[in-house]
Structure formats: structure tokens, C-alpha cells
Structure prediction request, 858 residues.
Amino acid sequence: MRLVLIHGRDQDGKDEALLRKTWTDGLEVGLSSAGLGAISEHEVVFPYYGDELAQMVAAAKQGLAHGTAKGGNSGILSDPNYMRLLAEILEGAQEGEISVDVATTKGLQNTALAIRLAQLADKTSFGCRILSLMTEDVILYLTKPGIELQLNAKIQQAIGTEPCVVVAHSLGSIIAYRVLRQLGAQAKVRRFITLGSPLGLETIRKLLSPPAREVPKGVASWVNAFDRKDIVALHPLDTSTWDVRPPIENHGSVTNHMANHHGISGYLDDVLVAHRIHEALNGT
Amino acid sequence: MKKALIAIGVNKTDGGFEPLKGAIRDAKAMYSWGQDQGFECRLFVDERNKKVRAEDIFEAVTEFVDKGTFSQIIVYFSGHGVLKAPQCELWLLSGAPKNPNAVINVSDSLHNARGSGIEHVVFISDACRSLPADMQQAVLGPGQVVFAGGRYGTEPTELDVFYATIPGDVALELPAGSGARDRGLMTEYLLDALEGNVPEVVRPLQHDGEALEVVHCRPLKTWLTATVKQAAAAIALHLRQVPEFRIESDVPKYLAQVVEPSSRADSGSVRNKPRDRTGAATRNQLIPSRGGDDAALRGAAARPQAMGQNEDDDGARRQVAIDNLMSLMERADPAGDIVVVGNQIQYVVSKSRCDVTFDGRDSRIKLEASADSTAVRLHDGTGLVIGLMPGFRSVVVVEKGRVLAVNYVPIDDAAQARRASLSQWQAVAAIDAINARFSLDEDETSPLVSHLRSLKPNGSRTLNPTLAVYAGYEYARMGKFEDVRRLFQVSLAQQRAIPFDLYLQAYKAGVRETDHIRVAPRMPMLTQGWMSLGELEERMPDLLRRARQHMLPSMWATFTPDGMDHLERFVLEN
Prediction:
């Protein structure tokens, strides 16, 4: 069985082989903790797009900055989707287990957001700048067809039409979902596993429509795992956010030991995540 | 794929309209059909003293939209309707017209549905589209939308609209026959087709590897147009109902999946199966209308222009109307800043001093200084506000006391050479817009479509303000927001003032660089603009809000004497 691993953002400049090893090592730890065998008998496919994404995002941001009006915000910062997504993450973080002071802020919305971002950065290990950049990348992928087309082509080739299990992290889960929708019944995915996925965020959900959201036709089952302290994966993919049939299995008890509660290793070495991957690979 | 249906049926309004007998049952029949099809359905009917309220419908639609998991939403309405002006469609709910806000603004709802992120939205209106018959109907407000505003998705929604009748005409309700219910004529045949009883509209479709038989919107349009028309005529020779459809969706999108009768769930439908499709003989009694007055039923429907009988008649009447308008426009005295053709105006209110003369047929207004907005009182005390565009003369054409068109004619000599084609385009646009037939579809190979397409902000071709107004609305209706924004940029680059109507459409299309822009006049010139201000509604000055309660049924916003009092004050104070 093929195991397709799809990474998230911020992987540019990294050695593809090393990155792949980070993923497989993390999974081996999880499998071992679960008392399950290794995955060596299975073919691992790791489509690396880190450098391409970084280049396209840089080019897009440069283009946007050139086209911006005088004064105030510039480039992606003036995209209402970016503001919406960032605000949603901040609000969600506040309502959740991450405490952020609700200070009364003055001036432009950006300033208010910047202050709250800084507060969030103080309270969590998820840096303010990282959060901004993550938000930018996601919005650019979802709103700039050129970026989407190029990345989708790469991921589509990796998933293909042969039976496989797809594990996707963070932005990778959005890309994988879009590709699986495009492939429709041609894909033969025994299980789609999303880790630390922002697919539950309202802004992301709205940017994904149309088409109406559904479990991709070629996906037999979908498992979504998240750490409740992961501010990227604030909401489960349940009936309140993804009212689809068959329902998505949510696993919200992951304790991601990475500093920002979002890193891939902290998801893959989770016992239940490893177990779900293992049973899908082995058809058990 | 999940699909949703909102079925609305309102038998009784609050005054002014004959109570209907079949609207509730129509809505229930659609609801029942939707359930058979596996739609998630909501029903809003005014039975057992329950009122149908716009807020409830809005919430139901919003719930479906926000889920993001519905690929199609159908909004069905059966009840009384009014066409306040071309492209100003209203559905009357419980409480209207006594409560002028108890109406659904269909045109604005369609506009908002475009950005809903739903792949396919279908509006079905089994209601009249006649013009307001009295002042109570005329003062109906802009109403409420059923789709929220805002645009998130990058792909626009495909919109299909089924109107039971053409603009200005009535929709008919059939009385109960032997064992049958009271029902709307169009709904009767629509359901027949949706249930798979009409082989002409059923098509095979391969969907996700499954062989289906479905009803697409385009064949349904062809069949219903012919069938409803024939059915109305079969009832009585003087009766006429010609449905109108605006279909954008194409294969693989479809409206109904044909289910074999044996496999249909017994949903307790209120309909009689099988339906009597040939029973003209049972339908010879009729007929209360769904919004029009009795005159309309006697064959004198209050249409803006008498169109819709047949294609030959349509073409001939259209050409006569265009020629008539052109001849009226051409007699405009070139010496005035504003020329009112065919009316002796009472007076003008403007911030500029002005000189008014009348030559026995037409009035001429000469302004001493530039003024964005000029209020013009016509002979009978009604009136309108004209925006002055630097470099253009305003020509207001009045016929039989009604404003037929407002045109902007270039003043400079170089532009005079192009005046013939411009007059032709303006006349065509005016007549087609009055009849809700104005189209800028890419398939149309008209010189006007090519001209508008060729306009660029730094190009040499000039955008005429009249055409900018018509085109702005039409591009918006078609969901071509890029073209709205392009026209706005062209206007911004070329002209010292932008028609408010184009500004409005550009604003609704997301343009926000609107500081320091000079608009003229400082209000919409078309009634549909007054009825669909969107986010700008909140900024509407109180005087204009009051004036809006005194609008006459007209494409170009025209006001009663009371309405003009408010507008004249606004012109002087702003």
C-alpha cells in the first residue's frame, strides 16, 4: 500500500530526504508506542513542495505590494480574507484554552490585530510572525489560482489513482482536500488523515466553496486529529463545521509535545494517529 | 451533494390584494416534491394565522449557506408579486402592503445569491410582475433580502430564475377542479415536469458512475414557455401568461432527478397523482390573479411596453418604440444644459442660477454654473433629479407624462460624428431595459456589446454616462463584477463626475477606492438603484429615505409631488 505524506508550509530550504525522515521517524515512534509493527513494507510517497511554495508566495506578495494603494495597509495585509482568518484564529484562541487579554485597542484594525497577535505570541509558543506567515500562505493558496494549480498538480501526481492512504498536515490538508475533490471517484484513498488542519476555520471553509464541501468521492474514510491547544486547528471537523456524510472521525485528544502544539512530529507519534494509519495501510 | 429547498406560500396579504386560494398548497406541493427528491426542505406558509416573515426566510437560507455543504438551493415563492420598476421585483409577505417592509426584494436577493458560494441557486417565482396598481403598492419599500451580502468564494454562483410571467404581466391561479386543488398555473406544469411526467425534458446523465435521468433547466425552460402559454389560452382566449426564464446553469447541473413512480416515497403529498395535463376543459372558470388588477386579467396588463405576445410582434413593437424614442431624442434643442422633451416643466431647483424656457413642446434649462444635482418639476408636479455630467447635455424624454429615458449627449463637435450610433445604442438600451430585455451577453454580437467590451481606462473610446448606467446594472445582474469594476475605472479616468448608479454597482462589486469621487446626481437615477442600495443603505440621508416612499412606478426614478418636496430640499441643502 502507498502512504502519501503531504507536508505543510514553512518547509522551504529543507532537505527533502531529511524532512521525509522526520515524518517517518515520528510515525515509527507512534507505531512503536502503540505496539504496532513498522511501515517499512509500504511505499512512502513524499511530494516536497516547500521551495516552490516559498518562491510563489514571495512573488505573489511582491506583485500585491506593487499594486497597492498609497498609505495604510499593503499587499496581503489589505486582503479582507487575511484579516478575517487572522481575527478568527485570535478569537478562537481566546475562547479556547489559550488565554489572551481582550484589551481595548485604538486605531486601525490592523493595529488592533497586531496588538492581539503580540499578546497571543506572549501566551503561546506559536510566534506572532509565524502565525501571520501561515495565514498569508493559506490565503494566497486559496485565492491565487496560479499557486493553487501548480501545487495541486504536484500533489495530484503523488496521490494518483492507485490505492493509497493520505496523511496531510496543516496547509497540506487543504491542498490534499482540494486535490481529492478534483480527482473525485478516480482517487482510491483508503483513509484520509488530516493533522493540525485549519479546515474547520470558517474563513477557510468559505474560501473552499463552491463547490459545496463533502467527503471526496474517492475517500473511504476520513480521520481528523488535533491538539486543542493548536491554534491552527481550532475547530473539529464535526457537524457544526463539516456537516457531511459519512461524518469525519475526529480525534481531539492529541497532546502535541511540540512547543507550538502544531508540529508534525507531535501528531505522528500520537498512539491513536499511528494506529489509524497502521490499520488503513494494512486493511484491518 | 446536498440540496436545499425553501418553499414559501402566502395566500393573504394585508389589504389591496385578492386573497389567493392556492399559494399555500403550491408551496406545500413543492415542499413535498423536494422531500421526495431528498432535499433538505423548509416551508413558510401563512396557514392557521401564522405569518410569513422575511427574517425567518433569511435565517433559513443563511443556515444553508453557512453550512457550506449544499451544492444547490432552490427558493420557491407562490403568492402576490409586484414589479415596482424594471429589475425591481418584490414578493409580498404577510402584512404587506400595509406594512411596506413586509416584502422580499427579489432582485437584490439574486444579487446577493451570486456571492453566496453555493454552486447553483434557483429562484422560482409563481407571482405577478405587474406594476403597482395603487399608491399603497407604489410605496412598498425596498424590502428585505433572503441571501446575505458579502462575497467569499472565488467562483460565482450560477443563477437560474423562473418567473411565472413576463415583466408587467400577471400570473394566474387555477380554481379547484374535480378533486384537484387550487393551484398556480406555472407551478402546476412545473411540478408535472419535475416529477418526470414530461419525456421532452428528461435527459440521461452519467453522475459519479451512476446512470441517472434528470431534468435540466434549459429543456424545462423551452417546454414550460410553450406549455404555460398554451394552457392559459386554452382556458379563455383573452387570458395570457408567458413565463420568463433566465437560465445560466448547464449540464451537469440539474433541477430534478426522475424517480420511477413505484419507488417514490409516499410523502402524503397534497398533489393529485397522476396530474391532469390535458384538462383545459376543467379549467374554464378562472381566475384571480397573483398581484395584478382586474384590468390586467381582461387582457390589458399594465406592461411598460406591450411585449411578449409572439416573437414577430415583439420585434416589430420594439423597433417602433426605438424609432419613436430616437426621433424624440433628436429634436432636443442643443442650446440647453438639460432638455426635457415633451413636457412643460413647472420649475427647477438647483444650486446654480438657471434659465428655463418652453417652446410649446419641449423645455430647455440653461444653468449658470455647474451643479451635480438638479431637481426638475414636471408639468403635473411629479419630477426627477438629473445629474449633470461635464461635457454632456442631459436629455429627458417624457411621453404621456412618464419619463421614458434620460440620455447624455456629448457636447463637443468631435463626438458629434459618433452621435448617430450613440443615439441608436441609447434608444435600444432604454427600450430593452424598460422591458427587462437589455442584455450584454457575450453571445450577443451587437455593436454595443463590442463597444462596451473595448472600453479601457486609458483607451481612446469614451464611455457615455447613459450607457454606463445601463451597463453597470446589467453586468452586475449577470455576475460580471470584473466588468462593473472596469467600467468604473473607465469612468473615473475619463469623466469629471461618475453616475451614482455606476458608483453604486462598483461599490457592491467590492470597489472601495471611492474617496474624493464626484458623483452626479447624489442619488440613483434608476428606480432599481433606489431599491437596492446594499451597504450604502445605512448612509442614506433621511431626506432621500423619505423621498423613496413617494416613488412612481418607472424605470427612471420619478417621484410624486410629495417626494419632490423632499428631493428639492436635499438638492438645496447638499
About this structure: Chain B has two domains: 2-293, 314-573. The first strand of chain B starts at residue 2 and ends at 9. Confidence is low (pLDDT under 50) at residues 262-288, 294-309 of chain B. Chain B touches chain A through 18 residues (CB under 8 Å).
